[in-house]
DNA sequence: GCTCATTATATCAATAGTTATATAGTCATG
DNA sequence: CATGACTATATAACTATTGATATAATGAGC
C-alpha cells in the first residue's frame, strides 16, 4: 500500500513514471524499490481514481513523456497516511533464514558466508556514509539553509537526510553482528 | 523463494503445516513470516514435486493431521541454498517512506510519529533481549552443551541464537536513530 | 446442551511485486 | 547506415503474500 503514497508524495512536482524510477534508483533505494512495470500501471490507476492528472509532452530525447501532477484528493490522503501509525515492515530477511540453518554446513563454509555478507554490508555502509557526509546535520541549525548549493534541491529537507542516517546506523549494527558471529563460531569446539 | 527452503529446513523432523506455523509465531518471526494460507498450498506443491511425503495421523485434539517429512532431493537443494550467496532483502521500509515526507507535517506531529516508532522498537528489543538472555553465548564454548535443559531443544544451535542477536543489535541501532531524529528535529528553527 | 477457545486443513479472491518482452524515438560511434 | 546506449511507455505472465471464509473435531465452562 505504501507505493501508492510514495508516488503521490513524489508528485509534489510534475513528473513522469520514468522520472520517478530515477528517484527510486537514487535516494529512495535505501528504503524502497519499484520496477517500471509496477509504476506505470499504478500511475494510470491513480489517474482513473481521481488522484492524478496527466499531460503528454514532447521530448527532445525520445518518445512523448506522460507527465503526472497530483490533485486535491491526493494531498488529503497523503496527510492521512503521514498521520497514521508507523508502517512496520513484516520482517523477511533471507540471509537470516540461511543463517538459521547454517549449523548444517562446515565451519569453513559458515565463515565464508558471513565474510561475504559482511562485505556487502560494508559496501552499502561506505556508499551511504559518503552520501550523508554531503549533507551535514549542522547545516540544518542555521535559519537559512544554503539555497545556493545546487545539490540541496530536495536533500535540503532534514527528514530526508535522516532517512540516510537510518541506513548508516543500521548497517553499522549489522557489520558488528557479522563480527560477533565470526568471533563465536571461531570459539566453537572443533567437533561440531 | 526463501519460504520453500525454510519449510524444507524445518522438516528435519516430521511436522504438519500447523506445527510449522507455530514456529513462525515463535523464533522465526524475527526474520520471516508466513500465513497458513501460504504454507498449506506450498507444502502440497513440494510434495507433488518430490521434495516431501506426507502421512495422515489421527489427533486426540482435533481433526486428522497431515505430517510431512522430507526426502533426499530436499536435502540436496537445502545444501545448495546454504552454499549460495547471502539472500539480501529488497529494502521496503514503510515507516521510512513516511519519514521521507515528514517535512510536510507539523513539528508536533513529527515528534509524535517518532516517539510511537521508538516505543515499538523498544518493545521488540525488550522481547528479544529477554529471549537471548536465556541462551548465553558462553554456553557454546563448552564441549557438551547442557543436554538436560528442556528448553535447549533447537535453540541449542549457535547459529539460531545468533539470529536473535541480529535483532537485538539492529533494534538498538534503530532506537538510537529515533533519538538522533528527535534531537535534530528539536534543534530545527521554529519557522520550518 | 450451548458457546467459546483451540487444534487442524483447505480454498478463494485480491493485492503486491518480478521478469520478460514489445515498441519507438534520439544520439553517438564506427 | 548499422549497432548499441539511453530515453520512454506499456503490457503479459508469473510468483509471492494477504485476508477472508468454510469446515470439522475436541474439550472446558456455564
Characterize the structure shown.
- Two copies of one chain form a homodimer.
- Chain A is mostly helical and 192 residues long.
- The longest helix of chain A is centred in the C-terminal third of the chain and has 30 residues, at 158-187.
- Chain A has a two-stranded antiparallel ribbon with strand order 1-2.
- The N and C termini of chain A lie far apart (45 Å).
- In chain A, 56% of the residues lie in helices and 6% in strands.
- The first copy, chain A, has helices at 2-10, 17-25, 36-48, 72-83, 94-100, 107-133, 158-187; strands at 52-57, 65-70.
- Chain A folds into two domains: 2-83, Winged helix-like DNA-binding domain superfamily/Winged helix DNA-binding domain (Arc Repressor Mutant, subunit A, Orthogonal Bundle), CATH 1.10.10; 94-187, no CATH class.
- Chains A and B meet through α1, α4, α5, α6 and α7 of A and α1, α4, α5, α6 and α7 of B.
- Chain B binds a DNA duplex (30 and 30 nucleotides) through residues 1, 3, 16-18, 33-38, 40-41, 44, 59-66, 90, 92.
Amino acid at each position: 500500500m505504501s507505493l501508492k503514497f510514495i508516488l503521490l508524495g513524489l508528485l509534489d512536482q510534475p513528473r513522469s513514471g520514468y522520472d520517478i524510477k530515477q528517484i527510486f534508483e537514487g535516494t529512495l533505494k535505501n528504503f524502497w524499490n519499484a520496477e517500471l512495470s509496477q509504476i506505470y500501471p499504478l500511475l494510470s490507476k491513480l489517474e482513473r481514481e481521481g488522484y492524478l492528472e496527466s499531460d503528454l509532452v514532447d521530448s527532445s530525447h525520445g518518445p512523448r513523456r506522460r507527465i503526472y501532477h497530483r490533485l486535491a484528493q491526493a494531498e488529503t490522503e497523503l496527510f492521512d497516511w503521514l498521520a497514521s501509525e508507523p508502517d512496520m515492515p513484516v520482517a523477511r530477511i533471507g540471509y537470516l533464514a540461511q543463517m538459521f540453518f547454517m549449523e548444517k554446513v562446515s565451519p569453513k563454509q559458515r565463515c565464508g558466508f558471513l565474510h561475504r555478507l559482511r562485505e556487502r554490508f560494508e559496501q552499502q555502509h561506505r556508499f551511504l556514509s559518503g552520501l550523508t557526509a554531503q549533507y551535514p546535520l549542522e547545516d540544518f541549525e542555521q535559519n537559512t539553509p544554503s539555497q545556493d548549493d545546487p545539490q540541496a534541491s530536495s536533500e535540503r529537507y532534514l527528514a530526508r537526510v535522516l532517512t540516510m542516517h537510518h541506513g548508516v546506523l543500521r548497517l553499522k549494527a549489522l557489520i558488528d553482528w557479522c563480527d560477533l558471529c565470526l568471533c563465536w563460531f571461531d570459539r566453537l569446539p572443533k567437533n561440531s
